[in-house]
Specification:
Helix content of chain B: 25-40%
Number of helices of chain B: 7
Number of helices of chain A: 10
Number of domains of chain B: 2
Strand order of the largest sheet of chain A: 1-2
Strand order of the largest sheet of chain B: 2-13-12-4-7-9
Largest sheet of chain A: 2 strands, antiparallel
Number of strands of chain B: 13
Structural class of chain A: mainly alpha
Distance between the termini of chain A: 34 Å
Strand content of chain A: 5-15%
Largest interface: A-B, 59 and 62 residues
Shape of chain B: globular
Oligomer: heterodimer
CATH class of the largest domain in chain B: Mainly Beta
Number of domains of chain A: 1
Radius of gyration of chain A: 19 Å
């Protein structure tokens, strides 16, 4: 049955959207990422105009992160102070991002910016993850233990001022790096419609050196706030949030996530990371192809606007 | 300009009923279309009859349906450093968002180009009211028409007018889901020997109704409330799912 989307002003088959939300929810439960970086391009492939795909994805991420964060809260695996500082940065980043989104939309370069940013981000992160998971798998095959991360290493980060203690993470570091990561994720989530989990998680582990057990919960809390704000700002500034589309996606997503979590418990960590890396790289290659291949029609049309 | 032409014909038709000798009656199967949650485009029928038809060759009927006008931005991509980016653009002001024209034989055989232009018959006669462009706007106009044809928003058919008898005719007009909300005008022209001898117009409206309408108005007139509500919906569904999940464990 076709469902009419009142803001996108087009009709879609409800099963396609619920299925898409479900598949992304499954991956998000399986791999521990929000899945926005896959959902937005898939919605665009499905014919949803890119501003609406970007803006509506933020509400889907809010729902799936909420569900995940509650589970983490029960395990007490959240560093609230870290989350609060990152959220502050995230709010500033979101406001900048939504403003930039409007400027780029009006200049007609929105699609280009979204595609290029995705190719760079997904290509880099996918490549790094692939490299790391293949190495771990090979090392495991040779029977050697994966090299343990050296702790207590002195990075440039430790020279920064405004140091404070993060009790839950057992860290004594400057507030500038978490604030900066927050800003970056805020900008990303409003321009690209991504929750930022695939950026914030590696940043917390490798840059801030947070213990892995508090990383997921802390990033989820930050992601909920930033994406909730992004949804509201997108609705106010760009009228681009389609509540009907959001509802279909969320219903599929929350069900899919439950199945994902169950399957994840039966797979090994390196296998999961390898899967995610391949998936991320596949999306990057597809988008890169779209940028360099000669388009069917060199002309594109936009109705109305200012 | 075009409206004026229609009006002129109508006034002339009223003033000179005897000399014209031919008359047109026409109507639409529906005068309003309501978009509901299961809306996936629709079609309407324009039907009509010729009164006191001449006993010589059958006259020509041309049916035009126009949607609301809007400014269209057309952008052209060109290759910069290996990637395709939007470089040139043109704004075509007040182009119809929907345009349908049907006849029983090619328009070029029915009337001369100036006549077709004057009444806005045929895709070649779909012209913007004004253009904002740096170079030649014609490729941009052609690209727009190509785009709209592909989307089913523009149609030109030389077999769309079906005569059911010597005097009765009907035309099926397809409106895709992407046809925007607003006021549509159907114009029915009677031509003989390349000249318009009678014309009728009917109005049609497409609008959202029910929940869709309320959502659209909510998003438009209270965007803050709309955004906050969407977030609350997301948070609530996320929370409910985690509750349900825990119960199943």
């Amino acid at each position: 049955m076709e469902i009419y989307l009142p803001i996108a002003e087009m009709s879609v088959h409800w099963l396609v959207i619920v299925g898409l939300g479900g598949a992304i929810g499954f991956l998000s439960g399986l791999l521990g990422v929000g899945g926005g970086f896959l959902l937005t391009p898939l919605l665009i492939f499905a014919g949803i105009p890119s501003p609406i795909a970007v803006a509506t994805t933020a509400s889907h991420i809010t729902a799936s992160s909420m569900s995940g964060a509650i589970a983490q809260w029960r395990k007490r695996a959240i560093d609230l102070k870290m989350a609060a500082i990152m959220t502050l940065g995230g709010i500033a980043g979101s406001i900048m991002g939504v403003w930039l989104f409007g400027v780029l939309s009006r200049a007609g370069q929105m699609d280009l910016m979204v595609s290029i940013s995705y190719v760079i981000l997904l290509g880099t992160i996918g490549g790094l993850m692939l490299n790391e998971s293949v190495r771990t798998l090979l090392a495991a095959r040779r029977g050697a233990a994966a090299p343990a991360r050296r702790s207590g290493q002195h990075l440039w980060i430790h020279g920064l001022p405004f140091k404070t203690r993060f009790r839950a993470s057992g860290l004594y570091i400057s507030v500038i790096p978490p604030l900066g990561v927050g800003v970056a994720v805020g900008v990303l989530s409003s321009i690209l419609g991504v929750g930022g989990g695939f950026v914030i998680v590696p940043a917390m582990i490798y840059l801030l050196r947070m213990p892995t057990n508090v990383v997921m919960g802390t990033s989820l809390v930050q992601i909920i706030f930033v994406n909730a704000l992004t949804t509201v700002l997108q609705a106010v500034d760009n009228h681009a949030v389609d509540a009907m589309l959001a509802l279909l996606l969320i219903v599929g997503g929350v069900v899919g996530a439950q199945f994902g979590v169950r399957v994840a418990s039966r797979l090994r960590g390196e296998q999961l990371r390898l899967l995610l890396a391949l998936l991320v790289l596949a999306v990057a290659v597809r988008l890169l192809f779209g940028l360099v291949a000669r388009p069917h029609d060199l002309y594109s049309v936009m109705v109305g606007g200012t | 300009m075009r409206r004026l032409a229609v009006l002129t014909v109508l006034v002339a038709g009223l003033a000179l009923p005897a000399s014209a000798g031919e008359n047109l009656v026409a109507g639409l199967s529906q005068d309003s279309i309501e978009i509901t949650s299961s809306y996936n485009g629709t079609s309407i029928v324009v039907f009509g009859a010729l009164e006191r038809p001449g006993d010589d060759a059958r006259p020509d009927i041309v049916v035009v349906v126009r949607g609301p006008e809007d400014d269209m931005r057309v952008r052209r991509k060109s290759r910069v450093a290996g990637i395709w980016i939007n470089s040139d653009r043109a704004i075509l002001h007040a182009m119809p968002a929907y345009y349908f024209v049907a006849s029983a034989r090619p328009l070029g055989q029915i009337a001369s180009t100036p006549t077709l232009r004057r009444y806005g018959l045929g895709l070649a006669a779909v012209q913007p009211r004004a253009v904002t462009a740096t170079g030649d706007p014609e490729p941009f106009r052609k690209a727009l028409i190509r785009h709209q044809l592909h989307a089913g928003l523009y149609t030109e058919t030389a077999s769309g007018v079906q005569f059911l008898s010597g005097t009765l005719f009907r035309v099926r007009v397809t409106l895709p889901a992407a046809a925007p909300r607003g006021k549509y005008v159907a114009e029915i022209y009677l031509l003989r020997d390349g000249a318009v001898v009678d014309a009728r117009t009917s109005e049609l409206s497409i609008d959202q109704t029910g929940l869709e309408r309320r959502l659209f108005d909510f998003a438009q007139f209270d965007p803050l409330g709309y955004g906050v509500s969407t977030v609350l919906m997301a948070v609530l569904l996320g929370w409910l799912s985690s509750l349900a999940f825990r119960r199943m464990e």
